[in-house]
Amino acid sequence: ILNVEQSPQSLHVQEGDSTNFTCSFPSSNFYALHWYRWETAKSPEALFVMTLNGDEKKKGRISATLNTKEGYSYLYIKGSQPEDSATYLCALCATDSWGKLQFGAGTQVVVTP
Amino acid sequence: NAGVTQTPKFRILKIGQSMTLQCTQDMNHNYMYWYRQDPGMGLKLIYYSVGAGITDKGEVPNGYNVSRSTTEDFPLRLELAAPSQTSVYFCASSYDLQGRYTQYFGPGTRLTVL
Fold first, then answer.
1. Mean pLDDT score of chain A, rounded to an integer?
2. What is the pLDDT of residues B78-107, one digit of tens each?
3. Residue B31, H or E segment
4. Which residue ranges in chain A fall short of pLDDT 50?
5. Which of residues 33-72 of A touch B (CB under 8 A)?
6. Cα(A88)–Cα(A91) distance, rounded to whole angstroms?
7. What is the Cα A1 distance to its own chain's centre?
8. In the beta sheet, which residues pair with residue B21?
């Protein structure tokens, strides 16, 4: 079982502020890192799949970076809006676990007007 | 495309009862997964399948069984339900098993065992 940790567990952000949070994972046997956005009472939706050290992905106001050598990824939300309120999950795929994702517990983001 | 669909949305079981959670995908994905989500614990893999007729255990398979007779369907069977199986269950599918492609999730089934 791979140890995928996300921090903080939750955070509150004022509308318009930017924020970021971390996904940490074992750097050995890295294959891919997934980010998912999970709104309450809905199913997780994919944001990014990152595979290369130094990868940067962007989708609207949300972006992510990846450092496979030190085993972490950051997710950034620029100019947070109430609709960004959700739990953000990262999931690691290792070379010896083909396609099976090990999910972190998530970071819950609450954006208040 | 409907994507990944799951039925039922909610279910209450008594201890010792059995039930089958249904999952269907219309994206012609070979790879399908069952997860359970417990509060504060993220998603844990129960079983997965790489194609019709082929299934394997994930991290928490005890108390569950699966079958995969077609590409589209991947039902999860609970035998002798226990309170520890109270959870939200998600089915997912993906284009490949190599982890470079996103997984598509169904809407979930909320199960309570009393």
1. 93
2. 999 999 999 999 999 998 766 778 899 999
3. strand B31-37
4. none
5. 34, 42-46, 49, 51
6. 10
7. 19
8. B76
pLDDT reported for residue A96: 80
Query: Would an 8 Å CB–CB cutoff place A76 in contact with chain B?
Result: no
One DSSP character per residue, chain A reads ----EEE-SEEEEETT--EEEEEE---TTEEEEEEEEE-TTS--EEEEEE-STT-EEEETTEEEEEETTTTEEEEEESS--GGG-EEEEEEEEETTSTT--EE---EEEEEE-
Q: Which residues of chain B have pLDDT under 50?
A: none
Q: Least CA distance to A87: which residue of chain B?
A: B42
Element (H, E) at B13: strand B10-13
Q: Which residues of B touch A105 (CB under 8 A)?
A: 40-42
- Tell me what pLDDT residue A95 has: 85
* Residue B48 to residue A99, Cβ atoms within 8 A: yes
